Structures are given as C-alpha cells and as structure tokens.
Amino acid sequence: MSPAGGFSWQSYSEATNSLDGRAFTKDGLVEQLSMTWDKSDYLWYTTYVNINSNEQFLKSGQWPQLTIYSAGHSLQVFVNGQSYGAVYGGYDSPKLTYSGYVKMWQGSNKISILSAAVGLPNQGTHYETWNVGVLGPVTLSGLNEGKRDLSDQKWTYQIGLHGESLGVQSVAGSSSVEWGSAAGKQPLTWHKAYFSAPSGDAPVALDMGSMGKGQAWVNGRHIGRYWSYKASSSGCGGCSYAGTYSETKCQTGCGDVSQRYYHVPRSWLNPSGNLLVMLEEFGGDLSGVKLVTRTA
C-alpha cells in the first residue's frame, strides 16, 4: 500500500439525550430487531430516574452504580448527556454486561443507552431464536433503598440516529447540519472531509486502522461497516497442520487490527471534491486515516 494523502476533517456530534417525533414509549424493555427491522443498526433505550433530595450519595459523592445486561452486540451509556463508556460482546458470547458509577443529581435524570447490532447467525439450529438489544435487567444500586430495578418502568425508544434521519452521509444531507472543527477520539461523532482522486489507475483504499467502530461513505455510497478490533498479541507461535483443525490453529496477525484497508471503487470517484463521511461510535484517531493506493 502506498500513501496517497491525508484529510482535513470537520466533525458533528450526534445528539445523545434528545428525542424527536420518531420516538415511542413502552412499558419495559423490548428486543431490538423486533423494533428496528433492519431500518438501522441502532436503537436508543431511554428512561428517567427521579432522585430525592435525601439520597445519601448526593452528600457523600459516592455515585450510584448502573448495571445493564444486554443480549448484544454493543452498547454505549449516557446519563444526562454525558458519556459513561461502551462495552461489546464477542463471537463466542455476544451477551454483555455494563457496570459503572454514574453521576446523578437531585430531580429527574435521563439514562440513554444506545444499542448496536452487527448481524445474526444465518445457520445452525434454531438460529431464528437469537436476539439482540437490552433485555435487562437494568438496575441502579447505591441508593437509600439499596438497589432499584428499572427494567419494568416506562422506556422511550428511537430507531436510528439523528444524523441517519438527516442523511448527513450524503452529499446533499451533509449540508443539513453545522460542522465544527475536528473532534477526534470522541464517541458517537460524524466526521467529513473532501479529497481528490489519486492519479493513475491503481486501486484506491482507506486506511482505517486507527479508528474504532462505525461506518464510512464516499460520495454518499456505503464503503462499509468497520470495526478495528485488535486481535490478541499472543497465539502466533509455531504452526503445524497435523491433527484436527481448529479456529485457533496456525493463527497469523496477532496484535493487528481485524481489518485495516477498505476498498474505494474508482468508478465512485470524481477527479476532485469527493466527500468522505465517517460515523465513529467509540472514538478513534482521525490523524491515522489515510488514502492509499495498491501497487503490485
């Protein structure tokens, strides 16, 4: 791969604690795919917690602990608009648990959980019974009452992201929001840049090894979903193909990201003024994203 140029970025932060006319409310927690039906990878789970003035943690500063059980595949947690991290499941066990201390104040507090799906098995026994999303329980501990179960109270749901509904990944839709200066390493943020097509006819790709998890578009066309998951740095020792094969046998690329380069068809490119838009979920290093060409 040969470097073919970097990018000058602008960023737009996705709204994390606002709901629009697409939102709907239900009692209790719901399975994600039964709500989204492939309209989006993402589903917001939002609820409110009322904190009385006599709660001890308001005086001690020992914040309550929020615990979330999910069927997968990844989720991010926001309380009153502030990010409290992300967790994700794995191939062998997609189910996940988030547990963290969250700052709350007297009165109403908004808990917003963004659940993301990355696909389901399409073979095996009873794969139609697999599910994703926050199925609970969701609990808040460290209160005067001890532990409060939030699972059965009213939850407000919204399918997809605000940026998706505005189509900010498209050439026309990108002008519908106000873009600011580059905001690298920020969760749930859209980034855009313009670039010229590299000279020649060598295949073109994006080097995305420094990013986290998200999606990318060039001139409104979907390059694909990316997840720069870093493989274990161990297990790439000696290799023998003797005996029974297993998925951990003769491994290569230990310590490398799962995928670094993403093909950009030249037929999608103009000589200049090409629009690259990325949705970064976890927060990545924009300075590492490069345009490259492949030479034999």
UniProtKB/TrEMBL annotation:
<feature type="domain" description="Beta-galactosidase galactose-binding">
    <location>
        <begin position="42"/>
        <end position="109"/>
    </location>
</feature>
<dbReference type="InterPro" id="IPR048913">
    <property type="entry name" value="BetaGal_gal-bd"/>
</dbReference>
<dbReference type="InterPro" id="IPR001944">
    <property type="entry name" value="Glycoside_Hdrlase_35"/>
</dbReference>
<dbReference type="GO" id="GO:0004553">
    <property type="term" value="F:hydrolase activity, hydrolyzing O-glycosyl compounds"/>
</dbReference>
<dbReference type="InterPro" id="IPR008979">
    <property type="entry name" value="Galactose-bd-like_sf"/>
</dbReference>
<keyword id="KW-0052">Apoplast</keyword>
<keyword id="KW-0964">Secreted</keyword>
<protein>
    <recommendedName>
        <fullName>Beta-galactosidase galactose-binding domain-containing protein</fullName>
    </recommendedName>
</protein>
<feature type="domain" description="Beta-galactosidase galactose-binding">
    <location>
        <begin position="188"/>
        <end position="274"/>
    </location>
</feature>
<dbReference type="GO" id="GO:0048046">
    <property type="term" value="C:apoplast"/>
</dbReference>
<dbReference type="Pfam" id="PF21467">
    <property type="entry name" value="BetaGal_gal-bd"/>
</dbReference>
<dbReference type="GO" id="GO:0005975">
    <property type="term" value="P:carbohydrate metabolic process"/>
</dbReference>
<keyword id="KW-0378">Hydrolase</keyword>
<keyword id="KW-0326">Glycosidase</keyword>
